[in-house]
Amino acid sequence: MKAISMPTYKWGAALAAILWLSACNKGDDKALENAEEQAAQQAADNGKIECALAGAAEFSRNCESERIAGPNGQIAVIRHPDGGFRRFRILTDGKGLAAAEGADLVKITPISADEIEVSIADDRYRLPARVKPTVGQEAAASTAAPAPTSTPTPTANSAPVSDGG
Predict the structure, then answer these.
(1) Helices and strands, number each (H, E), in the chain
(2) What does DSSP say about strands 48-52 and 85-90: parallel, antiparallel, or unpaired?
């Protein structure tokens, strides 16, 4: 019998909670939404992130991310389910990420105030990040929700991201 790893067990428990809530509270969409958010947060806490690999159109939460200290700063490693991986340098100049090796350019697109999409070659990743508003956006923030158009900065709890190089 194969032993179940702790992250798999936690993910299974979160999925069971979602299924239980959906069966018991068919009319309570808010409870289901909260359970889904909680499961997504738990997956993020376990290092799982959404990715669309090799040109895939749909994202799935089956890539893993981790940060490691390198001789030239923090390195973000995103591991693919097939064993492949990407390494990114976490930049401290407000530009986000850069490819740690290779010549592929990294494109970062803010999705919301707390999430970005990182594209490199045919792979895309959705990562939590704090998007810093520009000067114009800070002034507009008091009257309307700003559209994230500035450079994202990975947060302390966010998954790694990269910005080209």
Answers:
(1) 3, 10
(2) unpaired
- Asked if 157 and 117 count as a contact pair (C-beta separation under 8 A), the reply is no
For the chain, give the longest Cα–Cα distance. 60
Judged by DSSP in three states, 143 sits in: coil
Q: What is the mean pLDDT of each run of 10 residues along the chain (165 residues)?
A: 47 49 56 68 76 97 91 92 95 86 91 91 91 58 43 45 43
Domain ranges of the chain: 1-46, 49-165
How far is the CA of 110 from the CAs of 53, 71, 99, 127, in angstroms?
19, 29, 18, 10
Q: Could you tell me where the beta strands, DSSP code E, fall in the chain?
A: 48-52, 60-70, 73-79, 85-90, 97-99, 106-112, 115-120, 123-128, 130-131, 152-153
Residues paired with residue 85 on neighbouring β-strands, in sequence order: 79
Look at residue 10 and give its three-state secondary structure.
helix
Return d(Cα 131, Cα 5) in angstroms, integer: 34
Global pTM? 0.57
Cβ count near 46 (within 10 Å)? 17
